[in-house]
Give the backbone structure.
Amino acid sequence: MHPLARMITKGSTWASVINFKSSPFAKGWQNRVTQSIQWVLCFLCCLPPMSCATEYLTRDEFLQGAFDDSVPPPQTAWLRGELREGVKHILGHRYSSLRIRFWRIDTTQPRTAWILKEIGKELPITVGVVVDNGVIESVQVLEFRESRGGEVRYPAFTRQFESMTLTDQFQLSGNIDGISGATLSVSALKRLCRLALYLHDYATAIE
């Protein structure tokens, strides 16, 4: 092609591009793309925070440790009537389900194990509590879903609950030291330990 012809063709192409960018159709297309991007960003911002769930101990592992591998069959505590109101009083709200499963053996004294859930800040924390004759024997965090406050799973914290009982005012018999930045998680574990002791008294009264 003659050089002059190439220059004319090239100039015509750029002119077409410029004309397209300045045309009403192009402007409308750009506006639609911009609006679509804005809608996508708004949708992503409205999504709930992603769960950072971490399982530290399975249910079976917790129960095997609680009963020396001789795990009894599960039983059920139905949350109704006086029991439901007692649970609500301790938690400050109704429990997340209508029943709670537990495991119980009777040797020289009643022993129960509970796997309970309670909201920390936004998501539930799963905790296993072993109660022996009305006294907390051990507390373990099975699963933690929050992005902060996971320090409550460490034995240095959970050991504080050992040997505690439930007072007549449905409070723990001792004080629990908090953790900076994990106040809501600490409160959730304290409520669950009170709940486990309360449920233990109910379960051991069943004959």
